[in-house]
Amino acid sequence: MPHLHHGALGSSPVSLILTIFAVLVYLRGWLHVRSTSSNVIDTWRAGSFVLGLFSIWAALASPIAVWDEASLTGHMIQHLLLMTFAPPLILLSEPVMLFLHGLPRRFVRSIIGPLFRWRPVQQLGRLLAQPALCWLAAVGALVIWHVPAAFALGMQSKAWHAIEHASFLGTGFLFWWPVVQPWPSVSRRPDWSIILYLFLATLPCDVLSAFLVFSERVAYPVYLSTSGQSSLSVLADQECAGALMWTCVTIVYLVAGAILSLHLLSPQISATPEIDPQSMEVPL
């Protein structure tokens, strides 16, 4: 089976420039908000944003981006960074609010503001924020891209490989949006349904992980041609990838569920300070 060498998809100069631009705009917005309303945005949110972007860079532009072609474990690390780590870190940083403050005010008021107020965009936003849709999108991406035929397609085609990564990252943001509820979400207070939402999301991950760990046959033959590039056998690498996914997803979802539970059981103790958009001027 032919195997295309993709290289690091996120290492191009354009990607680097866009990443630096995003960081500068975000930090400009963060500094502006901190200078006017220091009690609205906590300092740790800027660190969360940078760490989230670093997770994306690690998945797409670091040696991990090439390792995934020789090892299912490398592929699983990419998948976890793009779906499980980067999205919640970035959403916790309140990116929408701070990007609005970081971009030029005239640009926000003349272009972004009317776009946000356009009824089709608002309807689309409400649709995409529905927990059921977010859950199905993330689970669908997970299941579809780990079907052997789809997996092989992504490994053999640079374009499909990029689409795979984009779907992991995009559905990761969708999945974590109802959990984090960043601005401009209407509700800032989660309910018990989000705990169930997280629990149900572990089930397809558990099934896939268990299959990879306990299966006695190679699920993705594409790695048979690259077995000499790793110290592990193909089957051992598959078991390692499954165990890694099982452990990371369980821990991350458990931590998120515990924080939400504490927030619900102790209303007077806010796990993450609530942001009231009325307490600051949002340039729309």
Number of domains: 1
Average pLDDT value?
86
The gyration radius over C-alpha positions equals: 20 Å
State the secondary-structure class: mainly alpha
Tally the helices: 12
DSSP E strands, number: 0
Structural description of this entry:
The protein is mainly alpha-helical and 284 residues long. It has one domain. Helix content is 70%, strand content 0%. The chain is built from twelve helices and no strands. α1 runs antiparallel to α2 and α8 packs antiparallel against α10. The longest helix has 32 residues, at 234-265. Residues 1-5 and 270-274 have low confidence and may be disordered.
Topology at a glance:
Elements: H1 13-36, H2 44-60, H3 64-67, H4 72-92, H5 95-102, H6 105-117, H7 119-128, H8 131-145, H9 148-156, H10 158-180, H11 192-214, H12 234-265
Labels describing this entry:
284 residues, mainly alpha, globular
Briefly summarize what is shown:
Helix content is 70%, strand content 0%.
